[in-house]
What we know:
By secondary structure, the chain is mostly helical. The chain is 74% helix and 0% strand. The protein has one domain (9-93). Helix 1 (8-27) packs antiparallel against helix 2. The mean pLDDT is 87.
Amino acid sequence: MSGYRADPAELAVAERHLRHTADALAEAALDRALPAHAGPPRLAAALTAFTEDAAAALDGTRSALSAAAAALAGTGSAYVEAEEDAADTLRGLRP
Length: 95
């Protein structure tokens, strides 16, 4: 035995945390119209660029967290299925 072990319950907890964090980031929407009213054109342009970059970073992070949560869910399900298949095989229920 390799000593490899996964705890599906722990994976589910981690998945929920990642989904919660992704949801919180989705709620942290930036007002993209606000920088246009920031003052002089150069300042407004700089703030607009910063806001767009920040929004893209938040979107990318949210997407990555959602993908990681989905991967954890799939991993937990696959582990449980593999364990059940192995147990059934050992009991002679499956070839």
